[in-house]
Amino acid sequence: MTRHAEITWIAQNGRHTTYERISHVGGDTPEPWSLTIRQAVKLADAGQRRFFVLRDGVEVKVEALTSRTGARYLKTANDRNEPHELLKLPANPAFEAQLAASALVA
Q: Which of 13, 17, 41, 47 could form a disulfide with 23 if both were Cys (CB 3.0 to 4.6 A apart)?
């Protein structure tokens, strides 16, 4: 059964290409969750999750695609080729602080 999941925030990794810039996506419903892009793409490809964002109160589907360079990424159905709508989503400062702290330990 496919579960719907609204993406409300992203984490970026500083890469230059828009296809590879988003490292994680997450949301708050029904409880806070986060996934790497790799995990999110895998769930979308398997039909286990249907990701979406809300734009003006309307659900916009998030799709998993492959870039010209072979990178797997997510973008909204409203985007042409690059994930510009996802890149407009806010960051999650608490999650990014957690990522930074785990990087220091590693």
A: 13
